[in-house]
Structure formats: C-alpha cells, structure tokens
Amino acid sequence: MNDNNILAVVLAGGQSKRFGEDKNHVKLGSLTLLEHVLKKVTNEFDKILIISNQNLNIKASTSISIIPDCIQGNLGPLVAVLTAMKWIKKNNEQYQWIATFPCDTPFFDTSIIEKYKSKINLNESLLYFVKSNQKRHNIFGLWSVKLMDTLENDLVNNNFRKVEEWADKVGVKMININNDKFDQFFNINTKTDLEEAKKLLKEYNND
Known about the structure:
The strands form two sheets. The protein has a seven-stranded mixed sheet, sandwiched between helices. A two-stranded antiparallel ribbon has the order 2-3. Helix 2 packs across helix 4. It has one domain (6-205): Spore Coat Polysaccharide Biosynthesis Protein SpsA, Chain A (Alpha-Beta Complex), CATH 3.90.550.10. The chain contains six helices and nine strands; from the N terminus they run βββαββαβαββααβα. The chain is of the alpha/beta class.
C-alpha cells in the first residue's frame, strides 16, 4: 500500500462534555463511532496512530498504536497533532505528513485521502484543511511534520489552543469537497446528534 509518507492520526482524546459520556464507545449501528473511523482509515493506511487520553476498547497492533497527549490537561486537538509529530520523531519514522481524522465523524468519504496524496508533492502549503459547502473542517487536515517546532512553541509559549486561529497564523490552504446528498462531515457532539446520525446511517447504507 502506498501511503505517500502520510501517517493516519485519529483524534480520540476529547472529554465529550456535551455528549455526557465517552463518545468513542458509543455505538452507531453495529460499530462504535471510533470503529467506524478506524474501518475506513485501516483500508487506506498501513499505520494508524490513535491519540487518546481515555481507555479505549481497541487492541494495539503492528498497524495501530494508541498514545496519550504529550502535554497533559486536555488542551485540545493541536496538542494531539503535536503528539503525533513527536511520536514520528521519537520512533525514527519516515513520515513527512500526518492526516488527522476526528473520532466522531463516521460518514466521511475516503476519497479525501487521495486528495491529500495529490497535495504533498506540490509544495503549495504545509497545511491543508477540508472545506465542504462553504464550511471549513479544521480536524480533517493534512499537516507537514515541518510544522512541529512552530506548533510546539505556539502551544507552550504563545498559548494557542484553537485550531483555526493557529492555522490562519501559519497559513492554510483548503481542499474543497462537494456534498450532494448529506453532510459527510457531520460530527456527533450530543445525544441529539447521535439520533440524527442513526437516520443518516440508513441513508448512507442505502446509497
């Protein structure tokens, strides 16, 4: 499998405050939300890194590694991104990019991965986010590992926490995706969202 030096990183470390329980273990159909995402990325990448501060019912293997944030305190997705970059460096991995996937967005189309792969040799940007129907999805991103030192400095010394603000500071380009039927980037933050996802799952499976 040719993953073009991209490490798949699943962000599963949130506190799920709005949901009321750990979303990673919540089932949508026959799979948990995390399993939906893993099923997709496992078919596309040889190696997957899960960043989580919770106990997950997922067995680590030669293809899946699970690690906590490198900075304690549940400080958000930027810390998880830095954690992945540091893991690459610590383990002398050859990945030059990471692709991030949130654990609570089960309907995304894996065609975005091919779009990621088409970007990494163009030297247009060190950071790309997905945008669909005029909405920017800051957690569906392609991040160059060259950003590691800048990211760490901004997290530790400049108190950056919001992904969008940091991305705008360093410069980010958009990968535009068309959504024709329903929002494939619909994410589940609340119990109400889960009920809506159950309806979407029927439509998704019948597509």
